[in-house]
TrEMBL record:
Keyword Oxidoreductase assigned: yes
Name of the protein this chain belongs to: NADP-dependent oxidoreductase
Keyword Lipoprotein: no
Molecular function via GO: oxidoreductase activity, acting on the CH-CH group of donors, NAD or NADP as acceptor
Any single Pfam family the record assigns to this protein: ADH_zinc_N
Keywords associated with the record: Oxidoreductase
CDD domains: PGDH
Superkingdom of the source species: Bacteria
SMART domains tied to this protein: PKS_ER
Domain Enoyl reductase (ER): 14-332
Amino acid sequence: NQQIHLDNRPQGEAVASNFKLVTTDTPALVDGQVLVRNHYLSLDPYMRGRMNDAKSYAQPQPVGEVMQGGTVGEVVESRSPKFAVGDKVVGFGGWQEYSVVDASQPGSLKKVDTTHVPLSYYLGAVGMPGVTAWYGLVKIIAPKEGDTVVVSAATGAVGSAFAALAKARGCRVVGIAGGPEKCKYAVDELHFDACIDYKEHSDGKAMGKALKEACPKGIDGYFENVGGWIMDAVMLRMNAFGRIALCGMIAGYDGAPLPMAHPALILVSRLKIEGFIVSEHMEVWPEALTELGTLVATGKLRPRESVAEGIAAAPEAFLGLLKGKNFGKQIVKLV
Ligand code: NDP
């Protein structure tokens, strides 16, 4: 069983030598446990925060242990009445090829149906990132038909689901993404009404002008994934009583400062800014996953995936995700 451990904590930017490839045997099962062969591992930006030993909403990733993370796979051995060999499951198996799971723990493992939804999508569009988009849009931005909504990191796992959910509610949906290829894909395949390349419009003034053109009626809702100067530029175009779902600030995850240039706008424009952590809102997951599953099954949401091959490739793929090298949901194919 090949695994990736956190070997040491990053000093500033995360680097490949923070991780270590380890080979172990899988232990024999005891009653209540199942052995899962992980087909795909999810790589997510939140993992960067957990590599630090800092106070946060979640415990830090322990050093010397398997990196934590979401996985989908197949039950290959079972000593639990709840799971049979061959069941396809989603869980939190970590950065490894096989995981032993205590299936008696509620929520430790969930069976999934792959008839209409590809298995790997349970880590993306029909998984945690999809529900994240749903929560921020439905519960925080709460758009009316015809509202203009904007999302940063638009072509990623969360952004792509956000676009489909917002289009389904009759919104004008504008993305912000890095590079012409991602922006073209956003409009052509994710059905964004417009997408602004922040690498081309690389300062507040140019971004402001592009936002004005793409959002002629101003911005009613903003789903923030990035932070920093992009957030400043969007805030300047927000309509009165606009809502900002503060989901992520990836521009600062590797230690860069994220000053806010216009905090007075929150007052002047009477904005609502709400941060949230999707795992603290388990009550919405069934409703959100049903809608996301239907969007995928009916072909309205078919986002791209960036697939790294083999567990040894996980650290490099993860470091790339923090720099925007992924194109769509970043996963690792294990077997
Ligand atoms: P993505 O698939 O969107 O991948 C990350 C993307 O972020 C990159 O592709 C890149 O896109 C963009 N990015 C990276 N660095 C920068 C930078 N310095 N400036 C601008 N953009 C950058 O990831 P996810 O969809 O999984 O996650 C998106 C956000 O949602 C993250 O901030 C994440 O932490 C957050 N999140 C929050 C949750 C919550 O509960 N609050 C749950 C899940 C995710 P590009 O090339 O377009 O710049």
